[in-house]
Amino acid sequence: MITTEVTVDELAALMKKAAGITVDPQELKRDAESPFDFFGLDSLGLLGIVGELENRYGLSLPPDSERCRSPREFLDLVNSTLKAGA
Known about the structure:
By secondary structure, the protein is mostly helical.
């Protein structure tokens, strides 16, 4: 069984790597229900993060992954997909 889970810290690092957006992981954790644009991340940046995760884990995320509105919604979807794909 896979125990891999994408954390808020990893999401913050991916936002920096894939979209050039620097976000404090603590701020991301505190405001996880806020929309991505609150942090300056647009849909293209989120698509880049989806691509990074797909490459990292070797599986496809659901087509609606890049339509998630908040970090919490995105992490819930990604982590449930990772667990299901285990």
